[in-house]
Amino acid sequence: MRADVHHVADGTYLVHGSHTNWVILTEGDAVTLVDTGYPGDREQVLASLAEVGSSPEAVAAVLITHAHNDHLGSAEYLRATYGTPVYLHEAEVPHARREFLHQVSVGTVLRNGWRPGVLPWVVHALRSGGTTHNPVTAPEPFPAAGALDLPGRPVPVHTPGHTDGHCAYHVPGTGVLISGDALVSGHPTSRIEGPQLLPDMFHHERPRAVASLDVLAELDGELLLPGHGPVHRGPVRDAALRARDRAL
Fold it and tell me: Residue ranges of the Metallo-beta-lactamase domain (predicted)?
């Protein structure tokens, strides 16, 4: 299956999977992979690495924004098959091991089934492995504070609310913010376009998710690579504040 790969900055690629994005940061022969789509997106993940001239063997690490199945999809496959380390915020490590699950419940989804886009999204999520038991057996917290010694030198930014340990990744060298689900530019269940929070039902603690937008607004950058939706060009601060205004 062909991956939908977009070269958005030097050494930086945004890949649109099935409803979820991931990011590839390249440096020479090595890459950092940020998120991995749904379990059902594995062929696209591998194809996207090939399209940028890389391979799963060249992935120095997988960074996960948060441990929902639509972002965690192939992390355990890469770890178990190629020995690739999988890094998350320390608060998200037990979530990735599935010691608990901060995720919208089936009951909540059903109560929102009347909303436009929700039922088609549910069907897609089920078909793509969104509700399968898909833990990472040996996830690791970030090995050091600040910029990680990985291709792209991404800097983890704790942005709790969607989950307790949600992290965005700031890449100051290219002005990129990889925002995961802390700040998106669209979603199949949303009727608006542009910078926004996901619909309320998806957040573990919505007030913290809103507060995390202020954290993102302090970051320098001109290129927003969200977990859902297209690339957004323009000041990251403006995007975060626009999403906050829409959420209030």
Answer: 19-228
Tokens of 144: 């050091």
Q: Which contacts (CB < 8 Å, 24+ apart) does range 231-238 have?
A: 231/6, 231/8, 231/14, 231/185, 232/185, 232/194, 232/195, 236/177, 238/195
What are the CA-CA distances from residue 92 to residues 89, 117, 164, 219 (Å)? 5, 29, 7, 22
Residue 215 to residue 179: CA distance in whole angstroms: 11
**pTM score, two decimals?**
0.95
Token digits of residue 73: 């999809």
Residue 88 CA to residue 62 CA, distance in Å, equals: 9
Report in angstroms the alpha-carbon separations of 181 from 5, 74, 85, 198, 209.
Answer: 19, 18, 22, 7, 9
Q: For 49-94, how does the pLDDT look when each residue is reduced to its tens digit (9 = 90+)?
A: 999 999 999 999 999 999 999 999 999 999 999 999 999 999 999 9
Residues 6 or more apart whose Cβ sits within 8 Å of residue 184: 190, 195, 196, 197, 198, 226, 227, 228, 229
